[in-house]
Design brief:
Number of helices: 16
Strand content: 5-15%
Structural class: alpha/beta
Shape: globular
Strand order of the largest sheet: 1-8-7-6-5-2-3-4
Largest sheet: 8 strands, mixed
Distance between the termini: 29 Å
CATH architecture: 3-Layer(aba) Sandwich
Radius of gyration: 19 Å
CATH superfamily: Nicotinate-nucleotide-dimethylbenzimidazole phosphoribosyltransferase (CobT), large domain
């Protein structure tokens, strides 16, 4: 009989973080999902977030529409992996129902505008990491994130920050590399094996073409995003940094959120990089980033990501410029009555839309294990796909 995963896996827990999860219980969760699109995701082989390449730009919009409306409105149905496993939004929806948690969508620059209420941090989708500039208006995106984080922190909630950005593990790898983290071959992704060779080659060629090497952007961390990243990254970093002054923040995701954590750490280690901001209005807002409390920030993902044999998240966590913990929800679909769900156990999908962090929260706040939580996920799957 297959050994069950622990409900919560403490993948990487620095000594100062021992009480982080218990401290989160003092405030109810609030979930945000930051959505963005990039041309990087359209490079063949980079993303499996959609049943076909033509549907990839719709993925993020369909995900957040499903959470609010119970179905996608921009498409006939929610996109799924080409092999059949469903979007991780089904895990997100099941967890939100268990938690009775409020939910906010943040647009960082998505190609398709979802039919949901949103906060707008940016309106320009990302370009390709092969273009001269991958993300325009990086400073503005970061400042918008700081402002959003300030306001959300006043709500009295533990913040769970998720994302839906197809192709985001590739931009995450690129950003980590130029921030000094050896990330090539260590990222997880939405397909078995994570297509590491293709992604490594893309990142290496993009860096070479821009005259970059590992660590090139350490002194000016936002340049890493401008040259190679995606619009979600500066928004999420800004939210987490300002909100951490007043509350606990969980970055919901695997590889993509480790890149955000690397960006946060690099900014805090190189405060002269804040000279990037020259507008008078920045002088009022920036102190919230300067005063960030990284001990109030953690990352949470799924066990499919943290224990991915084709990745090495533990190595990535050990290289962060500012230590943070990484936790994983011990989800296991091997006993599911639905074949498409059991495909998660073969390395498909793994994570997204804050699924791991929300599953972990549902399990932690309500003392659930995988066996008791799986039926709720199956019910959402049946309601949407069957």
């Amino acid at each position: 009989m297959k050994e069950q995963k622990p409900t919560i896996i403490k993948v990487h827990e620095p000594p100062h973080s021992k009480n982080f999860l218990d401290n989160c219980l003092k405030a109810p969760p609030l979930f945000t999902c930051t959505i963005a699109s990039t041309k990087t995701a359209l490079i063949p082989g980079v993303s499996a977030a959609g049943a076909s390449p033509e549907l990839i730009p719709y993925t993020a919009a369909a995900d957040v529409e499903a959470i609010i409306h119970g179905q996608a409105l921009c498409l006939d149905k929610i996109p799924e992996n080409p092999v059949g496993p469903p979007s991780p939004v089904i895990i997100t929806m099941a967890a939100l129902k268990k938690l009775c948690a409020p939910f906010i969508v943040i647009d960082a620059g998505n190609t398709i505008t979802p039919k949901v209420p949103m906060l707008v941090a940016g309106r320009s989708p990302g370009l390709s990491l092969n273009d001269p500039v991958a993300v325009t208006e990086v400073a503005d995106l970061f400042m918008q994130g700081i402002i959003i984080g300030q306001q959300l922190a006043l709500s009295g909630h533990t913040l769970i920050l998720g994302e839906s950005v197809p192709g985001g593990t590739t931009t995450a790898m690129a950003v980590m590399e130029v921030l000094g983290i050896a990330a090539l071959g260590k990222i997880s992704g939405s397909m078995p094996g994570n297509n590491q060779t293709l992604k490594q080659d893309l990142v290496s060629r993009a860096m070479l073409g821009k005259g970059l090497i590992r660590g090139s952007c350490l002194e000016h961390p936002l340049e890493a995003v401008r040259l190679l990243g995606d619009p979600m990254q500066p928004v999420q970093a800004g939210i987490a940094m300002s909100a951490s002054c007043r509350t606990n923040v969980i970055l919901g995701g695997g590889t993509q959120m480790i890149a955000v954590a690397a960006l946060i750490g690099a900014l805090l280690k190189n405060k002269k990089s804040f000279s990037y901001f020259t507008q008078p209005a920045h002088k009022r807002t920036l102190p919230e980033a300067f005063n960030a409390r990284p001990e109030n920030i953690a990352i949470a993902t799924t066990a499919w990501v943290s224990e991915d044999p084709a990745a090495d998240l533990r190595s990535l966590m050990q290289q962060l410029p500012v230590p943070m913990p990484l936790y994983a929800a011990g989800l296991d679909f091997s006993a599911s009555r639905h074949k498409n769900l059991s495909l998660y156990e073969e390395g498909y999908v793994k994570e997204g839309v804050g699924a791991g962090a929300l599953a972990l929260a549902a399990m932690h706040y309500h003392n659930l294990d995988n066996t008791s939580f799986l039926p709720a996920i199956e019910q959402v799957y049946e309601d949407i796909y069957l």
